[in-house]
Amino acid sequence: MKVTLSTHRPADAKVDLLVVAAGKDWRADGIAALNRQLDGKLVDELEHQGFKGKGGDAALFQTHGALPARYVLAVGVSDGGGTLPWYKLAHTAVTRARELKATSAAIAVPSRAATPAIVETLSEAAQLSAYTFDRMKGTKTTRRPHAQQLLVLATANETQLRAAVERGTTIAAATAYARDLVNTPAQIVTPTYLAAEATRLGRTHRLRVRVLDARAMQRAGMGAILGVAQGSAQPPRFIELIHRPPGKPRKRVALCGKGITFDSGGLSLKPAQAMESQKRDMAGGAAVLGVMSAVRDLGIDVEVRAYVPTAENMPGSHAIKPGDVLRAHNGKTIEVLNTDAEGRLVLADALSYAAAAKPDVLIDLATLTAAVRMALGNRYAAIMGTDPSVVHALISAGRACGENLWELPLVADYRSDIDSTVADIKNTGEGNAGTIIGGLFLKEFVGDVPWAHIDFSSTVMADKPLPCHPRGATGFGVRTLLRYLESL
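Request: output the structure for the sequence above.
Response:
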């Protein structure tokens, strides 16, 4: 879908579907002008359908040639809700356009709401709602088309609003890229594939790229990643991408994303049903690559270092065994009691490697535990960390784009749960607080660098369509991180 700004009046928009945002005083503003063009029939029909302008209200009017637009859709937008109601409006516009087989649509933004933030939201949300993943289909299927073109109708601050549309497009494209990586089968998305993608991003977006193979990881002392990878025929990779803005950067931020391209559980084998969705286990790495695909275009003026430790976790003849001990990059030894707790192992090497460069902030994203879904459901991800200001800033950035984060405590009393009798620590706990235990394990590898950990096993896939999230990979985290980086 292509989104562009237009200064046309709503009554002049030559589109299949004209969407008009309306609040409690819905008879005024854009509706009033259209109603005059339609000899009062629009308000009569909306009242007949019980439209009140509340958030979630929608009423459709067929113009029968009285306007250039074939249909007018009035959508209620609740006041005082920030940008979130506009995400829902854009989703409604795209969904109804598909239902009506409309190939072009326009959203009329009230003058009071024609701000860069809202226009950016509409651009971003419309493109996220129009996202599809059908590249693996071998035959053409009959699908309802979605609008190929969306106009955002607004006249104020034209230069700023055009820039806002472009920003929304960039952020949506980065999110869609992460979705594509997660949706693509693990037979394609291997560690080698992710490394090639990182190399491509570096070339396209002028990023510094470094990829370590198994031999280089051995020299770097990354025994945890190598231990996870040794049961698979697919060789592991350690990816580093660096964005350096022009001039002296104000801050240096390191991002780590778990990149397990398929997780069978290793010798601690998962049940068959639990394995069906495990191509998603590299969603943290996908989110980090998505962020790096956009930092240059968005003009982010902080240095961003991205790290993706990527491997397959398979039960091959050389697979790591419960009871084995690995040595991580920072020298700590780890007793592996459950080979299905492998994400924290690859992140142990990545976090300690990233922390050694002393960034101002270190953030990791990982599909780390199933426990987070039990705790928070599928609409919230967990966040915890050592620096409250970083945690709260990430929560705020997520709230602004509908990516919900809920802080969990790093309970010091639970730390003894990962004590080992044969190594420095073990990779599983003894209690029930699985998500917190995972965070406490990772904390052992960040040193004194301000750090936040996002466990988003709960939100990386949508089992059913949600606003701006078709079924499948959500691309969760990309938009939150980009907003956070811009706020620094």
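The mean pLDDT is 94.
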